[in-house]
Amino acid sequence: MNSGDIDFMRSALELAEQAQAAGEVPVGAVVVKNGAIIGRGYNCPISAADPTAHAEVMALRDAAQHLRNYRLADCTLYVTLEPCAMCVGAIFHARVARLVFGAPDPKTGACGSVIDLPQEIRLNHHMQVTGNVLAEEGSRRLKQFFAERRKIDNGAGR
User: Fold this and answer.
1) Which of 14, 17, 56, 148 is catalytic?
2) How far apart are the two ends of the chain, measured CA to CA in Å?
3) What is the pLDDT of residues 104-154, one digit of tens each?
4) d(CA 69, CA 76)
5) Quick one: 85 exposed, middle or buried, by C-beta within 10 A (0-12, 13-18, 19+)?
């Protein structure tokens, strides 16, 4: 972890707040190149009616538009939750150099929790991965979101 990791993860956490305010699972992501944020995204599959609209994918799309290139070499992606297999695939295709994530995801995490795609030697791209950066903050937000959702689903929120 380097000195900027905390600051950039805080930016991703702010985007997670926006996702939560929109009724989406609170996950946020930023893409950084040369010390500047060039892409931002947060979960929006519900509002976009798009199963691929995860925070990571949205941030990658934004960064690619910013650079006018689908290759994001020399970039770092910061995301508040360990990416799923779909997102790791997108990160690979973008050729992101480094991934920094917050909370581990014991149900769908593809960077060590369930499977570890970045360590799969048979794949054609590899990146540096750093996990557990401000993990407690991201995890707390997710737990709170799902606790509230359960209350609503069980009729307590009516």
Assistant:
1) 56
2) 44
3) 999 999 999 999 999 999 998 899 999 999 999 988 988 888 888 777 777
4) 15
5) middle
Token output for 7 = 């600051």
> Mind listing the pLDDT tens digit for each residue in 7-64?
999 999 999 999 999 999 999 999 999 999 999 999 999 999 999 999 999 999 999 9
Residue 56 annotated as catalytic: yes
β-sheet bridge partners, residue 78:
30, 100
Beta strands in 16-122 (DSSP E): 28-33, 36-42, 75-81, 98-103
Q: Which two tokens stand for residue 11?
A: 């930016």
Q: Partners of 99 in the beta sheet?
A: 77, 129
Q: Which two tokens stand for residue 137?
A: 């903050």
**Can you give the C-alpha Rg of the chain in angstroms?**
15
pTM beyond 0.70: the answer is: yes
43 within 8 A of 84, measured Cβ to Cβ:
no
Token code pair at residue 17: 């707040």
Residue with tokens 């401000």: 134
Tokens describing residue 13: 């956490």
